[in-house]
Design a protein that fits this description.
Order of helices and strands: EHEEHEHEHEHEEEEHEH
Structural class: alpha/beta
Number of strands: 11
Strand order of the largest sheet: 2-1-3-4-5-11
Distance between the termini: 19 Å
Radius of gyration: 19 Å
Shape: elongated
Helix content: 25-40%
């Protein structure tokens, strides 16, 4: 598999480079980073893996659609307008989009959804996420992914509460609290708390290295290569 890697100089880009360098079946044929012109790419790629920044999206999608190259989007923080561009581009090429490339994280998101279906109105739901002090967006895309999974199971009737310090009132039953911690070199921690009458259920995931995200992105790329245009995510990969 010939990979065009966007965000090659970032933390995740460097991890992917390290993993692919040891691979006998995959290779990186082009490395793209900030202020890079996609027209400068001279090698043909089978797939684009993007661990860069939302600011790169327009040029990336233009290049990918013109050259009919599948794209794995592992970046978070897209605007509504950018999400629409991703949806439009998916009519021309296959796009794999996930806020978190870890198989484990996506598994706990599914487990949280199942828990919400069973526990329903009797339990309050809170999500706590923690990341390193260099992360730009808060809450994390993964926390929102989990919240969306849970909310979808509850007929999308829940409201997301990010900050209670401005309120002086009891917690509403329709809330999903989402809390962000930023500090040190935390790779990624996510915990979903279901707090009910006299019992608490917790589902959690702890990332111990960035390799889990890199390996997940590579698996996603391998999955995507022969797919038809459309948007795919970890649910599609987990079902294979």
């Amino acid at each position: 598999m010939k990979i065009i890697l966007c965000g090659a100089n970032g933390r995740m880009g460097q991890v992917i480079c390290s993993i692919v360098d040891k691979s006998e079946k995959n290779e990186i044929v082009a490395k793209v980073d900030t202020d890079f012109d996609f027209s400068e790419i001279t090698s043909n790629g089978d797939v684009i893996i993007d661990f860069s920044n939302p600011s790169s999206l327009d040029d990336l999608l233009k290049y990918a659609t013109q050259n009919k190259i599948p794209v794995v989007l592992a970046t978070t923080g897209y605007s509504d307008e950018q999400l629409k561009k991703i949806e439009d581009s998916s009519k021309l090429i296959p796009i794999f989009k996930s806020a978190n490339m870890s198989l484990g994280v996506n598994l706990i998101a599914n487990l949280a959804s199942k828990a919400a279906k069973i526990l329903k109105d009797d339990f309050d739901i809170e999500i706590i996420e923690a990341h390193h002090n260099q992360k730009l967006d808060a809450p994390s895309g993964t926390a929102l992914l989990i919240a969306d999974k849970v909310n979808n199971e509850l007929s999308n009737k829940m409201n997301y509460e990010y900050d209670r310090h401005t309120k002086y009132e009891k917690r509403e039953k329709s809330e999903i609290g989402i809390h962000s911690v930023r500090g040190g070199t935390i790779v990624g921690e996510h915990e979903i708390i279901f707090a009910g009458p006299d019992e608490i259920v917790k589902i959690s995931h702890s990332a111990r290295s960035r390799e889990i995200f890199a390996n997940g992105a590579i698996k996603s790329a391998e999955f995507l290569i022969d797919k038809n245009p459309g948007i795919y995510d970890m649910n599609d990969l987990l079902e294979v």
